[in-house]
Structures are given as structure tokens and as C-alpha cells.
Amino acid sequence: MTAGPDRTPLDRAFFDRPVLEVAPDLLGRVLVRRTPDGPIELRLTEVEAYAGPADPGSHAYRGRTERNAVMFGPPGHAYVYFTYGMWHCLNLVCGPEGHASGVLLRAGEVLDGHEWVHQRRPKARNDHELAKGPARLATALGVDRRLDGSDVCGDPDAPLSILTGHPARPEQVLSGPRTGVGGEGATHPWRFWIDGDPSVSPYRAHTPRRRNSTRRQVGT
């Protein structure tokens, strides 16, 4: 019989570390989303690290704005941004306060709350596709800008929290370039995923867009 995931919540000290330590260590952890309908639990299988002012791929590369302000706050909070005029993406702030690094949650396996997730993701062909990709993950969990700044290390009844789960073993973790990131940050191997997990999203290289097209906002 397989043991259930460790239900101990991750504390703030977990997130108060360099982003390249936190990101792979999130794999296998359990994200809990509490909704009015009921709780949803998701095992994290794919993430991307963004290193703030030191990272050209980060939203915080050019400094603090109203949009990215949460990234500059204490670790252990959610940074939620809106992209393409239609999708939300969920990130977790880490590192020391003021540093503005964060981890984009790219994919996961739904463990509980399937009924609520299927209502939000009716076009998913199977359970592996419910949260396969950052926009799908946020949609599946009912995450939007109202959760920007949420403390994931606070009240046990808060909208979001992270449980210890079953951390992925080092030999299970692969890394490579981040999806859709161009320019100087294109080759950083800061995307981490669990090898062979069917919920992991396919890699897509950055595609330059025409000057008059809508600029894509990626990463954190």
C-alpha cells in the first residue's frame, strides 16, 4: 500500500532560500487550493525558476512595478499575473525580501477535487491534461489576480498552501531551458520537472513575434 503524502505545511524558511534551491525542491510537493466548492490538491511536477533583477527572463528584471510588487515582498507568498489578455499564471515568491525571485508553477497531477477541476477544464482529454501547463494549472485551481499576494505559509484555512508531500528524488529531477523565454535568458536551464511524469508540459522554444503583434509575457 502506498503511503499518503506528508500533510505537514511547508514553512516560510522553505521559501527563504535561493530560487535555484527552492524550484527543484518543490517537485512532488502538494499544492492545496481551498475554494467555496471544496478543496483541490495538486502534486507539483514541473516548475521554472526566475531570479529577479539578475534574470532577463523575469518580470522583475527592470525593477519594481505595481504589477510585480508582490515579488519584492516576503517569501512564501503567491504572485499571480495575467497574460495574453485571457490567462492567469501562479508563482511562489522565494529568497530574501526585496530580492524578487520566484517559481512559476507549470504543471501538476490532480490528487483530490477532480469534480471541481473538471468543471473548470471540461476540454481536457484525460486527467493528465487537467493542469498540464501554467495557464491550465491556474484555471484548474480557480486562480486569478484576487489571489495575488496570498500568504501560502499562514492560516491553515487560507486559499493556498503547500504540503510536504513526497519530494521527488534527485535522480527523478531533470532540468532544461525555460519554455518560451528568449533573449539573454533563453538558455538558462531553470525549468525543472519529474522525469517521465505524464502531466509535464511539452517544451516550446521562444518564437520571436512581429513588431506590431502583442508581446508575450512569460515567467516571473
TrEMBL record:
Q: Matching InterPro entries, A to Z? A: Formyl_transferase-like_C_sf, MPG, MPG_sf
Q: From the record, what ranges are coiled-coil?
A: none
Name of the protein in question: Putative 3-methyladenine DNA glycosylase
GO MF terms here are: hydrolase activity, acting on glycosyl bonds
What keywords tag this UniProt record?
A: DNA damage, DNA repair, Glycosidase, Hydrolase
> Per the UniProt entry, what species is this protein from, by scientific name?
Streptomyces asiaticus subsp. ignotus
Q: Which Gene3D superfamilies match?
A: Methylpurine-DNA glycosylase (MPG) (3.10.300.10)
State whether keyword Kinase applies: no
Family, similarity comment: Belongs to the DNA glycosylase MPG family.
CDD domains per UniProt: AAG
Q: Does the keyword Hydrolase apply?
A: yes
